[in-house]
Amino acid sequence: MTEVNRNQIFELVRDALVELFEVDADDIKPEAQLYQELDLDSIDAVDLVVYLQNQTGKKIKPEEFKSVRTVDDIVDAVVNLLKAE
């Protein structure tokens, strides 16, 4: 994936949340709070990072994900990661 496309990355994150944590796809909106609304915990966040690393082929540093609170924050983090190559 050479061109960074926010919609594609949102879909990747949405698919990961549905597949890994059985989150209802209708609940996954850019502004959705990961911990409050989607019921993720810190272990889930680690699993999500591992999944996204596998999908993007990029190493994600845990500190890059410490500040994420919403689905859109994850999308931003992945976009920045892919742009950094």
TrEMBL record:
Q: Where is the Carrier domain?
A: 7-82
The entry's comment on post-translational modification says: 4'-phosphopantetheine is transferred from CoA to a specific serine of apo-ACP by AcpS. This modification is essential for activity because fatty acids are bound in thioester linkage to the sulfhydryl of the prosthetic group.
Q: Which GO terms describe its cellular component?
A: cytoplasm
Q: Which domain of life is it from?
A: Bacteria
One term of GO molecular function: acyl carrier activity
Question: Which UniProt keywords are present, listed alphabetically?
Answer: Cytoplasm, Fatty acid biosynthesis, Fatty acid metabolism, Lipid biosynthesis, Lipid metabolism, Phosphopantetheine, Phosphoprotein
The pathway where this protein functions is: Lipid metabolism; fatty acid biosynthesis
Q: Does the keyword Chloroplast apply?
A: no
**Function in brief:** Carrier of the growing fatty acid chain in fatty acid biosynthesis.
Q: Which family does it belong to?
A: Belongs to the acyl carrier protein (ACP) family.
Protein name, as recorded: Acyl carrier protein
**Which species does this protein come from?**
Photobacterium lipolyticum
